[in-house]
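Hi P.,

Sorry for the delay on this. The queue was packed all week, but I finally got your sequence through. Input first:
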Amino acid sequence: MKNRTSRARLRPCAFAALSLVAALAHAQAPALQETVVTATRTAQPLTDIVADVSVVDRETIEAAGANGLVDLLARLPGVEITRNGGVGNSSNVFLRGAEGRFAAVYIDGVRVDSQSVGGAVWEQIPLSQIDRIEVLRGPAAAVYGSDAIGGVIQLFTKKGEGTAAPYVGVGLGTHNLRRIEAGVSGASGAFDYALGLAREQSDGYDIRDSAGHNPDRDGYRSTAGNARLGLQINAAHRLDATLLANQMESGYDGFTYTPASPENDQNDNRMHTAGLTWSAKWTDAFSSRVSVTDSVSRYETTPSYYLTRTHLRGYLWQNEYRLGAHLFTAALERREDGLTNAPIDRERSQDALALGWGYHANGHTLQVNLRHDSDSEFGGKDTGSIAYGYALTPTLRATASAGTAFRAPTLYQRFSAYGDASLKPEEGRNVEVGLRYASGATTASVVAYRNRVNNLIIFDGTATACGALYGCYNSVGRAEYKGVTLAAGHRIAGVTLRGSIDFQNPRDLTTGKLLQRRARRHASFGADTVLAGWTLGAEVQASGRRFENAANTQVLSGYALVNLYASTRIARDFTLLARVDNLSDKDYQVARTYVAPGRTLYVGLKWAPR
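Then the structure:
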């Protein structure tokens, strides 16, 4: 390994300098007229939202080049990632330093989760099929139920509109990366459609640097597709159907390699989501939505055999009533979770009632939500939240909120050989305050938060209650996630600046140690402009020191990365994209002994008739 890691460490003075720049940058700051649905599960203008939300549009996704979904999320405020090597390998996303399983994840309204490890299996989700992303930072269990202790991430596929719009794209990159994609979207009368397919393959690189590992190249191949269909029955009724599927096969380095028997370890990840929704507008004031959703997450390894399969099904009846400046919501929801992971073959269900009231008038915004979940395994759980915003001036707004949240233990945590059937739900209590400024092309915000979690489920290598030789899960941990997020955006002389910086302190309250793989400071900055027909952009991503283990004795050094991208239309219907990630070829790790990609180049060409 190159001896550059120590030089990548970010010292406090460097962060202080970067924070001055942060006053002029905000990652993917949504426009004021933007409509979002994640905060309350209903479509609302951004000006009516008190929650801390970021939006990523299709143009930003396309500029990501050959990166995976988690790489794109890492450029947002309050987001950190870990990954065991490159694209296709085990990944995790931390919102405000909270555990990865504390982010509720949805694709077109379909919940995705693993009842084995807990949380979404990020490497299974194909970025090529995603058209828009909304990220809500802060608890939302009073709206979504279990899982949303740290926040919510909603992913949306493309919706068809206008005349038929086909596209075909190809790309080549470092590590013999090859990509091809095609699709079409549009609308005809009452019917709209969007279809997409993508195939991506890479020879990869050796993702481990530990002694005795398999020195092979750990590549991947992904085949993904999606379909989104809509039918406007009449002015008041609409049907929507969505389907997304992906198979991701990737190489990894296990722990049983011997030169005499050099077998290549392989992951086989498969997932699909499907949803059917009927939306009805009964009057100008009253509307409702009924949806049925289904998702499967399957993970298998060979030749060291392991197989786990999570099957989720959901039913939602959402109602909205608008009365002047008031919005009332009421929802009934049922969630069914199933896990097959030999010898486990278990199911459970949760039935919920959720109520909400929102008010927006005369500079005041108030949002109150209450929810009761009844779990077939551990009984009932109540959660609530209240959020208030006040426009101090036409451009400056103050916000404050408080909320409770929970996550039910996974079926694996309760019923595996290492499980404990008496595990309690993890419980969180969050408070936060913020200031947000918006005037024309200039935005700025500061949000301070504190989220305390009790009954934190950890794997205790010394526990013996489950009878396993190497330890058991228990729910006696306590953690605190607190910090400040600064973000801003500005446009000057034709250059758009954006970025954010996070100061946080995610700690284990029992030991006082910093939580694993999370930095106390991390930042992301970007700038782009148009010059001579080219869109030119640059990004800087930086992270402070982290620790691999709970004892804080294994250090993951800080790092700073520079990425560059450029795109131009080379003919009426053709667009060329070039992107370089990790320009200085930094050696760094986000998981110990797993090598992050070095400098990579991607060049893509897309045909999309205009």
